Predict the 3D structure of the following.
Amino acid sequence: MGLDLKIEQREPGSVEPPKKVGLRERIKAFFANPKKRLIFIIVAGLVLIALVGIGLYFLTYEARQKKADEKKEAEKPTLYQAPLDGVMTDLDASKRHPLGIMVENHTGARPQIGLNKSSVIYEAIAEGGITRYMAVFGTSETDVVGPVRSARTYYVDWAEGYNAYYAHVGGNIDALDKISSDKVLDLDQFKFPSAYWRDSSRRVSSEHTMFTSTSKLRAIASEQNYTTANNFSVYKYKDDPTAESDEGKALSLSQVIKVNFSSANYDVQFDYDRTTNSYLRSLAGKPDKDGSTGEQLSAKVVAVMTVKRSPTTTRINESGYNMVTVGEGAAKIYLDGKEIVGTWKKSSTSDREIFYDSTGKEITFNRGKLWICVIPPEGSVNNEIVPAAAKEATSN
């Protein structure tokens, strides 16, 4: 009986295929290795810790965010309303005593410096149709302001409405007499020259080169033991309308105010800027810019007062004007892109003028600079307004 034997022959150099190992066997083999087992435990622990941390982060996020917001709110500085212009500011700035500085507007004095830092500006004719400013400082200060020029009686009256420190370079004799008799808190350059200096680099006539600083003037006021109490009338103030409010949506898209004082060199224009809800100022047909920063002057509120005036000659034969600053007269007030026709009233030289609408209600101003243009009856103010609705209708 024959026996058949089959012998499998492999080719020389061939390798026997490995046996297949299941997943379970692989896991057992992995954990049977102490080193690999330790690595797994460490990695798993780290992953678990990370997952727990992420979970806690999201679970406590709202509470932590609330606490952070409360802390941020608590760290905000407390703000106080500045009485001069209603701006919300720090306590020291809100307590500063009003400082009125006479600044000239002769063509040789331009561009002036420091007017952009003032809270209130009075602009009126001095002589020969040439306008002059009294800039009242308090909320903000400036290292340079000027050119500083001389006093006139009606500016003294306006300064007295604030019981302001009053800075000027001399004045006509009527103004100097009034400063003395009314016991104005005087900062005349002739009395206190250390607070003033001349800037000859401007290359203009010497009368256009006198400058000062608010800090130097306040130092003199302190040395003279002038009062720091603020007891003048404070206007009513409000915040700018928000874009979403009905009042904000109704703001004019275009408003141009033209004030004619005397001649083209002193013509003023205020262009309403809806974006900032303020009025950009131009003088003699050009943007009126600060001589130091190049910033165009602007105001949150423009008031145009009509004031009676008459020519006068002082006791030393100086020619000038008297203006009726006490009493009442016509006024037009511009804010939020609209015109309010009303009146101004000033009960005495020691009171600030208050502005009322046509119903006799005191006008509430926006916070920020107030620019008061004082014109004689023969002066004029023209106002052109294009309401938002009309503007949008013509553009569609």
Summary: Residues 1-5, 391-396 have pLDDT under 50 and may be disordered. The radius of gyration is 38 Å.
